[in-house]
Amino acid sequence: MKFFAFHLMPYAALDPDYDKKYNSAWVTLPNTYYDPKIGHALYNRYLDELELADAMGFDGVCVNEHHQNAYGLMPIPGVMAGALARRTKQAKIAVLGRALPLLNNPLVVAEEFAMLDNITAGRFVAGFVRGIGAEYHSWGANPAESHDRFHEAHDLIVRAWTEPGPFTFEGKYYHFEYVNCWPRPYQQPHPPIWIPSQGSRETIEWASHPSRKYTYLQTFSPVTALARYMQMYRDTAQKYGYTATLDQVGWAIPTYVAESDEIARREAKPHIEFFMNKLLRMPQEMLLPPGYLSLQSLKGVLSAKRGLSGAQHTVDSLIESGMFLCGSASTVREKLEKYQKEIGFGYLLPAIQFGSLPHELTRKSVEMFAREVIPHFRKRDAGAARAAVAGRA
Protein backbone atom coordinates (compact mmCIF):
# COMPACT_ATOMS: atom_id res chain seq x y z
CA MET A 1 0.00 0.00 0.00
CA LYS A 2 1.20 3.49 -0.83
CA PHE A 3 0.30 6.56 1.23
CA PHE A 4 -0.41 10.03 -0.18
CA ALA A 5 -1.12 12.83 2.31
CA PHE A 6 -4.19 14.69 1.07
CA HIS A 7 -5.02 18.29 2.04
CA LEU A 8 -8.19 20.26 1.31
CA MET A 9 -6.85 23.54 2.72
CA PRO A 10 -10.16 24.74 4.20
CA TYR A 11 -10.83 28.15 5.67
CA ALA A 12 -10.44 26.75 9.18
CA ALA A 13 -11.26 30.11 10.78
CA LEU A 14 -14.78 30.21 9.38
CA ASP A 15 -17.36 31.51 11.87
CA PRO A 16 -19.25 28.30 12.81
CA ASP A 17 -22.48 30.29 13.09
CA TYR A 18 -22.48 31.11 9.38
CA ASP A 19 -25.16 28.46 8.85
CA LYS A 20 -27.69 30.45 10.86
CA LYS A 21 -27.94 32.71 7.83
CA TYR A 22 -26.59 30.65 4.91
CA ASN A 23 -27.35 27.05 4.03
CA SER A 24 -23.92 26.15 2.72
CA ALA A 25 -20.25 27.10 2.81
CA TRP A 26 -20.31 26.72 -0.97
CA VAL A 27 -21.27 29.07 -3.83
CA THR A 28 -23.49 31.51 -1.90
CA LEU A 29 -21.48 32.15 1.29
CA PRO A 30 -20.29 35.79 1.00
CA ASN A 31 -16.54 36.22 0.74
CA THR A 32 -16.73 38.87 3.45
CA TYR A 33 -16.27 35.92 5.82
CA TYR A 34 -12.71 35.59 4.47
CA ASP A 35 -9.89 37.52 6.14
CA PRO A 36 -6.79 37.70 3.85
CA LYS A 37 -4.42 37.97 6.82
CA ILE A 38 -5.79 34.72 8.21
CA GLY A 39 -5.68 33.24 4.73
CA HIS A 40 -1.99 34.12 4.43
CA ALA A 41 -1.24 32.24 7.65
CA LEU A 42 -3.38 29.25 6.66
CA TYR A 43 -1.86 28.82 3.20
CA ASN A 44 1.66 28.79 4.60
CA ARG A 45 0.67 26.54 7.49
CA TYR A 46 -0.93 24.05 5.10
CA LEU A 47 2.16 23.98 2.88
CA ASP A 48 4.24 23.29 6.00
CA GLU A 49 1.99 20.32 6.80
CA LEU A 50 2.41 18.76 3.36
CA GLU A 51 6.15 19.37 3.48
CA LEU A 52 6.16 17.58 6.83
CA ALA A 53 4.44 14.59 5.24
CA ASP A 54 7.20 14.48 2.63
CA ALA A 55 9.91 14.65 5.30
CA MET A 56 8.18 11.92 7.32
CA GLY A 57 8.19 9.44 4.44
CA PHE A 58 4.77 9.60 2.80
CA ASP A 59 4.87 8.38 -0.79
CA GLY A 60 3.12 11.49 -2.04
CA VAL A 61 1.25 14.67 -1.20
CA CYS A 62 -2.00 15.80 -2.80
CA VAL A 63 -3.74 19.09 -3.53
CA ASN A 64 -7.03 19.65 -5.34
CA GLU A 65 -9.35 22.18 -6.98
CA HIS A 66 -12.51 23.80 -5.64
CA HIS A 67 -14.09 27.17 -6.37
CA GLN A 68 -15.84 29.88 -4.35
CA ASN A 69 -16.19 28.14 -0.98
CA ALA A 70 -14.72 27.81 2.50
CA TYR A 71 -14.31 24.04 2.17
CA GLY A 72 -11.15 24.21 0.09
CA LEU A 73 -9.04 27.26 -0.70
CA MET A 74 -7.35 25.95 -3.86
CA PRO A 75 -9.12 27.31 -6.95
CA ILE A 76 -5.76 27.00 -8.76
CA PRO A 77 -4.07 23.88 -7.34
CA GLY A 78 -1.05 24.33 -9.57
CA VAL A 79 -0.01 27.28 -7.39
CA MET A 80 0.26 24.97 -4.38
CA ALA A 81 1.83 22.18 -6.41
CA GLY A 82 4.42 24.64 -7.72
CA ALA A 83 5.29 25.75 -4.20
CA LEU A 84 5.65 22.12 -3.12
CA ALA A 85 7.70 21.17 -6.18
CA ARG A 86 10.79 22.97 -4.88
CA ARG A 87 10.35 22.28 -1.16
CA THR A 88 9.58 18.56 -1.20
CA LYS A 89 12.40 16.11 -1.91
CA GLN A 90 11.01 12.58 -2.18
CA ALA A 91 7.22 12.54 -2.28
CA LYS A 92 5.29 12.58 -5.51
CA ILE A 93 3.01 15.59 -5.98
CA ALA A 94 -0.53 14.82 -7.12
CA VAL A 95 -3.03 17.41 -8.29
CA LEU A 96 -6.37 15.65 -7.67
CA GLY A 97 -7.42 17.13 -9.86
CA ARG A 98 -8.19 19.79 -12.41
CA ALA A 99 -11.90 20.09 -13.27
CA LEU A 100 -11.61 19.73 -17.03
CA PRO A 101 -15.22 20.57 -18.08
CA LEU A 102 -14.88 24.04 -16.54
CA LEU A 103 -11.98 25.00 -18.79
CA ASN A 104 -12.18 27.20 -21.85
CA ASN A 105 -8.71 26.03 -22.89
CA PRO A 106 -7.51 22.59 -21.66
CA LEU A 107 -4.05 23.26 -23.11
CA VAL A 108 -3.30 25.43 -20.07
CA VAL A 109 -3.47 22.22 -18.01
CA ALA A 110 -1.27 20.34 -20.49
CA GLU A 111 1.35 23.07 -20.14
CA GLU A 112 0.97 23.56 -16.38
CA PHE A 113 1.23 19.84 -15.62
CA ALA A 114 4.17 19.39 -18.01
CA MET A 115 6.00 22.18 -16.17
CA LEU A 116 5.39 20.55 -12.80
CA ASP A 117 6.53 17.21 -14.18
CA ASN A 118 9.76 18.79 -15.40
CA ILE A 119 10.47 20.73 -12.21
CA THR A 120 10.03 17.59 -10.10
CA ALA A 121 11.91 15.28 -12.50
CA GLY A 122 8.88 13.06 -12.82
CA ARG A 123 7.49 13.20 -9.28
CA PHE A 124 4.17 14.43 -10.62
CA VAL A 125 0.75 12.72 -10.79
CA ALA A 126 -1.95 14.26 -12.99
CA GLY A 127 -5.49 14.11 -11.62
CA PHE A 128 -8.50 14.84 -13.83
CA VAL A 129 -12.00 15.35 -12.43
CA ARG A 130 -15.34 16.60 -13.68
CA GLY A 131 -15.74 18.72 -10.54
CA ILE A 132 -18.65 18.32 -8.16
CA GLY A 133 -21.98 19.93 -8.97
CA ALA A 134 -21.34 23.05 -6.91
CA GLU A 135 -18.50 24.04 -9.23
CA TYR A 136 -20.95 24.27 -12.12
CA HIS A 137 -23.03 26.79 -10.16
CA SER A 138 -19.92 28.82 -9.29
CA TRP A 139 -18.55 28.73 -12.82
CA GLY A 140 -21.81 29.13 -14.72
CA ALA A 141 -21.07 25.93 -16.64
CA ASN A 142 -23.64 23.56 -18.09
CA PRO A 143 -23.61 20.27 -16.11
CA ALA A 144 -25.34 18.44 -18.96
CA GLU A 145 -22.18 18.93 -21.06
CA SER A 146 -19.92 17.67 -18.27
CA HIS A 147 -19.15 14.18 -19.59
CA ASP A 148 -18.56 15.20 -23.20
CA ARG A 149 -16.42 18.20 -22.30
CA PHE A 150 -14.38 16.10 -19.87
CA HIS A 151 -13.63 13.42 -22.43
CA GLU A 152 -12.75 15.90 -25.16
CA ALA A 153 -10.49 17.93 -22.86
CA HIS A 154 -8.79 14.75 -21.65
CA ASP A 155 -8.16 13.59 -25.21
CA LEU A 156 -6.72 16.96 -26.18
CA ILE A 157 -4.36 17.05 -23.18
CA VAL A 158 -3.07 13.50 -23.70
CA ARG A 159 -2.55 14.10 -27.41
CA ALA A 160 -0.71 17.35 -26.62
CA TRP A 161 1.62 15.38 -24.32
CA THR A 162 2.23 12.43 -26.63
CA GLU A 163 1.97 13.55 -30.28
CA PRO A 164 4.65 15.59 -32.04
CA GLY A 165 3.42 19.09 -32.72
CA PRO A 166 2.18 21.23 -34.14
CA PHE A 167 -1.04 19.48 -35.11
CA THR A 168 -4.65 20.58 -35.52
CA PHE A 169 -7.40 19.64 -33.08
CA GLU A 170 -11.05 19.93 -34.11
CA GLY A 171 -13.58 18.84 -31.51
CA LYS A 172 -17.11 19.72 -30.53
CA TYR A 173 -16.02 22.16 -27.81
CA TYR A 174 -12.34 22.90 -28.51
CA HIS A 175 -10.73 24.01 -31.77
CA PHE A 176 -6.99 24.64 -32.23
CA GLU A 177 -5.06 25.16 -35.42
CA TYR A 178 -1.78 24.64 -33.55
CA VAL A 179 -1.32 22.18 -30.70
CA ASN A 180 2.38 22.21 -29.87
CA CYS A 181 3.02 21.66 -26.16
CA TRP A 182 6.16 23.30 -24.81
CA PRO A 183 7.50 21.93 -22.51
CA ARG A 184 6.90 18.24 -23.13
CA PRO A 185 6.33 16.08 -20.02
CA TYR A 186 9.36 14.66 -18.23
CA GLN A 187 7.66 11.26 -17.82
CA GLN A 188 7.10 9.40 -21.04
CA PRO A 189 4.67 9.02 -22.62
CA HIS A 190 3.02 11.21 -19.94
CA PRO A 191 2.56 11.50 -16.15
CA PRO A 192 0.35 8.87 -14.50
CA ILE A 193 -3.32 9.89 -14.56
CA TRP A 194 -5.61 9.40 -11.56
CA ILE A 195 -9.37 9.82 -11.58
CA PRO A 196 -11.07 10.77 -8.28
CA SER A 197 -14.84 10.29 -8.26
CA GLN A 198 -17.94 10.12 -6.12
CA GLY A 199 -18.88 6.80 -7.71
CA SER A 200 -20.18 7.45 -11.23
CA ARG A 201 -20.57 4.18 -13.15
CA GLU A 202 -19.60 5.95 -16.38
CA THR A 203 -16.41 7.22 -14.77
CA ILE A 204 -15.46 3.75 -13.54
CA GLU A 205 -16.12 2.21 -16.96
CA TRP A 206 -14.11 4.94 -18.68
CA ALA A 207 -11.15 4.89 -16.24
CA SER A 208 -10.83 1.10 -16.28
CA HIS A 209 -10.89 0.78 -20.09
CA PRO A 210 -7.85 -1.15 -21.39
CA SER A 211 -6.64 1.89 -23.33
CA ARG A 212 -6.39 3.82 -20.06
CA LYS A 213 -6.32 1.64 -16.90
CA TYR A 214 -6.23 4.83 -14.84
CA THR A 215 -6.09 4.73 -11.05
CA TYR A 216 -9.60 5.29 -9.68
CA LEU A 217 -9.99 7.00 -6.31
CA GLN A 218 -13.16 6.79 -4.24
CA THR A 219 -13.64 9.90 -2.12
CA PHE A 220 -15.29 10.38 1.28
CA SER A 221 -17.67 7.42 1.24
CA PRO A 222 -18.81 4.84 3.81
CA VAL A 223 -16.75 1.68 3.68
CA THR A 224 -19.72 -0.27 2.31
CA ALA A 225 -19.87 2.07 -0.70
CA LEU A 226 -16.09 1.87 -1.07
CA ALA A 227 -16.32 -1.92 -1.32
CA ARG A 228 -19.07 -1.69 -3.91
CA TYR A 229 -17.20 0.71 -6.17
CA MET A 230 -13.85 -1.08 -5.86
CA GLN A 231 -15.61 -4.29 -6.89
CA MET A 232 -17.35 -2.47 -9.74
CA TYR A 233 -13.95 -1.39 -11.06
CA ARG A 234 -12.56 -4.94 -10.85
CA ASP A 235 -15.67 -6.46 -12.43
CA THR A 236 -15.54 -3.93 -15.27
CA ALA A 237 -11.87 -4.71 -15.87
CA GLN A 238 -12.71 -8.40 -16.08
CA LYS A 239 -15.41 -7.65 -18.67
CA TYR A 240 -12.74 -5.80 -20.63
CA GLY A 241 -10.56 -8.92 -20.46
CA TYR A 242 -7.93 -8.15 -17.85
CA THR A 243 -7.44 -8.26 -14.05
CA ALA A 244 -7.17 -4.91 -12.29
CA THR A 245 -4.19 -4.44 -9.98
CA LEU A 246 -4.22 -2.91 -6.52
CA ASP A 247 -2.47 0.15 -7.96
CA GLN A 248 -5.58 0.92 -10.02
CA VAL A 249 -7.79 1.67 -7.00
CA GLY A 250 -7.43 3.97 -4.00
CA TRP A 251 -9.36 5.50 -1.11
CA ALA A 252 -9.37 9.08 0.21
CA ILE A 253 -10.54 9.38 3.83
CA PRO A 254 -10.11 11.84 6.73
CA THR A 255 -7.63 10.31 9.18
CA TYR A 256 -6.51 11.10 12.70
CA VAL A 257 -4.04 9.24 14.93
CA ALA A 258 -3.34 9.94 18.62
CA GLU A 259 -1.95 8.19 21.68
CA SER A 260 -5.13 6.18 22.34
CA ASP A 261 -8.59 5.68 20.86
CA GLU A 262 -10.10 7.84 23.59
CA ILE A 263 -7.66 10.71 23.05
CA ALA A 264 -8.07 10.51 19.27
CA ARG A 265 -11.86 10.71 19.44
CA ARG A 266 -11.80 13.56 21.95
CA GLU A 267 -9.27 15.63 20.02
CA ALA A 268 -10.81 15.01 16.60
CA LYS A 269 -14.48 15.32 17.58
CA PRO A 270 -15.18 19.08 17.18
CA HIS A 271 -13.11 19.34 14.01
CA ILE A 272 -14.41 16.31 12.09
CA GLU A 273 -17.99 17.19 13.06
CA PHE A 274 -17.46 20.77 11.87
CA PHE A 275 -16.06 19.38 8.62
CA MET A 276 -18.88 16.90 7.99
CA ASN A 277 -21.85 18.83 9.38
CA LYS A 278 -20.92 22.31 8.23
CA LEU A 279 -18.18 22.60 5.58
CA LEU A 280 -19.30 19.60 3.55
CA ARG A 281 -23.01 20.29 3.72
CA MET A 282 -24.87 21.67 0.73
CA PRO A 283 -28.35 21.37 -0.77
CA GLN A 284 -28.80 18.30 -2.96
CA GLU A 285 -29.50 20.43 -6.02
CA MET A 286 -26.14 22.12 -5.50
CA LEU A 287 -24.26 18.85 -5.14
CA LEU A 288 -25.98 17.08 -8.04
CA PRO A 289 -27.49 19.59 -10.48
CA PRO A 290 -29.79 18.32 -13.25
CA GLY A 291 -27.91 16.68 -16.10
CA TYR A 292 -24.69 16.12 -14.11
CA LEU A 293 -25.15 12.33 -13.83
CA SER A 294 -27.02 9.67 -15.73
CA LEU A 295 -30.05 8.24 -13.94
CA GLN A 296 -28.20 5.01 -13.13
CA SER A 297 -25.16 6.80 -11.72
CA LEU A 298 -27.37 9.27 -9.85
CA LYS A 299 -29.08 6.41 -8.02
CA GLY A 300 -25.73 4.92 -7.09
CA VAL A 301 -24.18 8.17 -5.89
CA LEU A 302 -27.28 9.09 -3.89
CA SER A 303 -27.12 5.70 -2.21
CA ALA A 304 -23.42 6.04 -1.44
CA LYS A 305 -23.72 9.64 -0.24
CA ARG A 306 -27.06 9.28 1.55
CA GLY A 307 -27.03 11.57 4.56
CA LEU A 308 -23.61 13.00 3.73
CA SER A 309 -24.82 16.56 3.20
CA GLY A 310 -27.95 16.50 5.30
CA ALA A 311 -27.71 14.31 8.40
CA GLN A 312 -25.95 15.31 11.58
CA HIS A 313 -22.84 13.19 12.00
CA THR A 314 -20.95 12.41 15.18
CA VAL A 315 -17.37 11.27 15.50
CA ASP A 316 -18.68 7.87 16.60
CA SER A 317 -21.08 7.44 13.66
CA LEU A 318 -18.36 8.46 11.22
CA ILE A 319 -15.89 5.97 12.65
CA GLU A 320 -18.50 3.21 12.72
CA SER A 321 -19.47 3.75 9.06
CA GLY A 322 -15.84 3.81 7.96
CA MET A 323 -15.98 7.42 6.81
CA PHE A 324 -13.31 8.46 9.30
CA LEU A 325 -10.15 6.62 10.30
CA CYS A 326 -9.53 7.62 13.89
CA GLY A 327 -7.81 6.06 16.87
CA SER A 328 -4.49 4.89 18.20
CA ALA A 329 -1.85 3.77 15.72
CA SER A 330 -2.62 0.13 16.49
CA THR A 331 -6.34 0.65 15.90
CA VAL A 332 -5.75 2.45 12.60
CA ARG A 333 -3.32 -0.27 11.50
CA GLU A 334 -5.84 -3.01 12.31
CA LYS A 335 -8.69 -1.26 10.50
CA LEU A 336 -6.59 -0.55 7.43
CA GLU A 337 -5.39 -4.15 7.35
CA LYS A 338 -8.97 -5.37 7.60
CA TYR A 339 -10.35 -2.98 4.99
CA GLN A 340 -7.59 -3.68 2.50
CA LYS A 341 -7.92 -7.44 2.91
CA GLU A 342 -11.70 -7.33 2.45
CA ILE A 343 -11.91 -4.64 -0.24
CA GLY A 344 -8.53 -4.43 -1.95
CA PHE A 345 -6.92 -1.06 -2.73
CA GLY A 346 -3.36 -0.04 -3.38
CA TYR A 347 -3.46 3.63 -2.40
CA LEU A 348 -4.62 5.29 0.79
CA LEU A 349 -5.01 9.07 0.74
CA PRO A 350 -5.39 10.20 4.37
CA ALA A 351 -6.88 13.69 4.60
CA ILE A 352 -4.39 14.80 7.21
CA GLN A 353 -6.28 17.97 8.16
CA PHE A 354 -10.05 18.40 8.27
CA GLY A 355 -12.37 21.22 9.27
CA SER A 356 -10.90 23.31 12.04
CA LEU A 357 -8.20 20.83 13.14
CA PRO A 358 -5.34 23.02 14.41
CA HIS A 359 -1.73 22.77 13.29
CA GLU A 360 -0.35 21.15 16.43
CA LEU A 361 -2.86 18.29 16.26
CA THR A 362 -2.39 17.89 12.50
CA ARG A 363 1.36 17.68 13.00
CA LYS A 364 1.04 15.14 15.81
CA SER A 365 -1.24 12.91 13.76
CA VAL A 366 0.99 13.09 10.67
CA GLU A 367 4.06 12.18 12.70
CA MET A 368 2.35 9.29 14.49
CA PHE A 369 0.86 7.94 11.25
CA ALA A 370 4.27 8.11 9.57
CA ARG A 371 6.16 6.50 12.47
CA GLU A 372 3.65 3.90 13.63
CA VAL A 373 1.31 3.06 10.73
CA ILE A 374 3.23 3.34 7.45
CA PRO A 375 6.23 1.18 8.52
CA HIS A 376 3.89 -1.72 9.39
CA PHE A 377 2.65 -1.85 5.79
CA ARG A 378 6.12 -1.24 4.33
CA LYS A 379 7.42 -4.29 6.25
CA ARG A 380 4.39 -6.38 5.36
CA ASP A 381 4.55 -5.55 1.66
CA ALA A 382 8.32 -6.13 1.52
CA GLY A 383 7.82 -9.55 3.13
CA ALA A 384 5.10 -10.43 0.64
CA ALA A 385 7.35 -9.37 -2.26
CA ARG A 386 10.23 -11.53 -0.97
CA ALA A 387 7.88 -14.49 -0.58
CA ALA A 388 6.59 -14.02 -4.14
CA VAL A 389 10.15 -13.96 -5.55
CA ALA A 390 11.06 -17.08 -3.54
CA GLY A 391 7.95 -18.83 -4.83
CA ARG A 392 8.96 -18.16 -8.44
CA ALA A 393 12.54 -19.34 -7.89
Q: Descriptors for this entry?
A:
393 residues; alpha/beta; TIM Barrel; eight-stranded parallel β-barrel; two-stranded antiparallel sheet; 14 helices; 11 strands
What does this structure look like?
With 393 residues, the chain is an alpha/beta fold. The chain has a single domain, classed as TIM Barrel (Alpha-Beta Barrel), CATH 3.20.20. Helices cover 46% and strands 16% of the residues. The chain contains 14 helices and eleven strands. The strands form two sheets. The protein has an eight-stranded parallel barrel, surrounded by seven helices. Strands 5-6 form a two-stranded antiparallel ribbon. Helix 2 packs parallel to helix 3. The longest helix has 20 residues.
Number of domains: 1
Hey, roughly how much beta strand do the residues contain?
Answer: 15-25%
Q: What is the arithmetic mean of pLDDT?
A: 94
Helix percentage: 40-55%
In CATH, the architecture is Alpha-Beta Barrel
